[in-house]
Amino acid sequence: MQDFIIHVRFTDGTEGDVDFQDELHGEIFEPLKNQAFFQRFTVHPEFRTLTWPNGADIAPKFLYEKARILT
Question: Residue 23 and residue 30: Cα distance in Å, rounded?
Answer without folding.
Answer: 10
